[in-house]
Amino acid sequence: MRRLPLPLAALLAWGLAPAVAGAAEVANSGEAPFSETLPFVLTEIAEMDSPWALAFLPDGRALVTEHGGELFLLRPTGEKLEVSGVPPVAHGGQNGLFHVAPSPRFAQTGEIYFTFSEPGEGGSGPALARAKLVEAEGAARLEDLAVLWRQEPKGGGGHPGAIIAFDPSGEHLFLTVGDRQRMAPAQDPDQGLGKILRLTLDGAAAPGNPQEAAGGVRAMTWTTGHRNPYGLAFAPDGRLWSHEMGPQGGDELNLIEAGANYGWPEVSYGVHYGGRAIPKPPTRTELHEPALYWTPVIAPAGLTFYAGDLFPDWRGSALIGALAGSGIVRVAFDDQGGARQVDRWDLETRIRDVETAPDGSVWAIEDGSPGRVWRLTPAG
Questions:
Q1: CA of 157: how far to CAs of 25, 81, 123, 227, in Å?
Q2: How far apart are CA 110 and CA 135, in angstroms?
């Protein structure tokens, strides 16, 4: 493994001011300079082929997906073990194998959940699956695989979303579904696109959802009006947060509240590609405004809330991978649901996912083929 104390490239980026010392506070716009120094060093754990997401098992190993359709168990020492039994994946562009998460009951059942682009008639669509992770004689495989939710009808397009989060009780599963670059379905209550769904662990509509009695997609819907949500996580205080990519400008971090409409494509702090204007969120008071937005964009991907001991100043903060921002962003929160960017570290590479390890270190995935998995530990 290679230990790399990366220097910070504190240069002008997207018209931002030069970096300044200390944390940069913002109101609800993420237009802030890069932090001047890195408070961590990066150790390369492994090199992979287009890694997309990672999640930790209780024993400290990580499940890592590769976008082309491979799933691996990865030890902190760098050894990789491929897991067989992943279903066929429609791979191309933004579509492929996506997120992975151990069940809240993993210790009892050995089950994991994952999302992937499922091929089928008319194209492909994001799907949610559950399977048992079985290890024997130095090999690992998935057994008893079941698809619990799938986009119907299928069709082309990117923006899959497909991020999984379990509520603190471990009784419900939240799933982000992007708009598949079609925009209008995000406001259609009878289409699962552009929504955050709240499901039982078996993939059914969860009791207590805002439109539980309506049946179908409506009964599964927790929130609506999302574009391309690539981050979803519960904060230590139990609140649910999600971020999503805006169009040309207007990446968002949102506090997720039951029944809320987050506005896409009716409003945005960005503009359509080509420059066509979109009304700004304050023009529609019935729609939920983001707690924080970025213009120019950072292309957020991956979201974790830090609760470890290695970085005590980060406790309660969100760490967000940045594809366009080429690094990691740290966001702090207040009791009223407000958020501010306090750090932005340039790692000179696209970060696809970021997660907190059981030992309090932070792991980050570098986007690309090859793409490295990094471990962040305190500098000095």
A1: 37, 32, 9, 12
A2: 10
CB atoms within 10 A of CB 259: 12
Give the whole-angstrom CA distance, residue 85 versus residue 142.
Answer: 5
| Spatial distance between the Cα atoms of 222 and 82, rounded to a whole number of angstroms | 35
Report the alpha-carbon distance of residue 378 to residue 380 in Å, rounded: 6
Query: 159, 172, 226, 243: which is the annotated catalytic residue?
Result: 159
Q: In the 8-state DSSP scheme, what is residue 223?
A: E
142 exposure class (CB count in 10 Å sphere: 0-12, 13-18, 19+): buried
Residue whose entry in the numeric block shows the structure tokens 């209550």:
189
- Tokens read off for 23: 């944390």
- Over the stretch 97-138, which tens digit does the pLDDT of each residue have? 999 999 999 999 999 999 999 999 999 999 999 999 999 999
Phi/psi of residue 128, nearest 5 degrees: -110, 130
> Catalytic: 243?
no
| b/e sequence 308-327, b meaning 16+ C-beta within 10 Å | eebbeebeebbbbbbbbbbb
Give the Cα separation of 216 and 201 in Å (integer): 17
| Domain count for the chain | 1
Residues paired with residue 146 on neighbouring β-strands, in sequence order:
130
Strands 161-166 and 195-200: unpaired
Question: What Rg do the C-alpha atoms of the chain give, in angstroms?
Answer: 20
CATH number at residue 270: 2.120.10.30
Within 8 A by CB and 6+ apart from 227, the residues are 159, 178, 179, 186, 194, 244, 245, 246, 247, 264, 265, 268
The pair of three-digit structure tokens given for residue 192, joined into one six-digit string: 């699962």
What pLDDT, in 10s, does the model give residues 51-101?
Answer: 999 999 999 999 999 999 999 999 999 999 999 999 999 999 999 999 999
Cα distances (Å, whole numbers) of residue 72 to 122, 130, 162, 177, 323 = 30, 16, 19, 24, 23
Among 136-140, 299-303, 322-326, 336-340, where is mean pLDDT lowest? 336-340
Q: Which domain holds residue 114?
A: 3-378
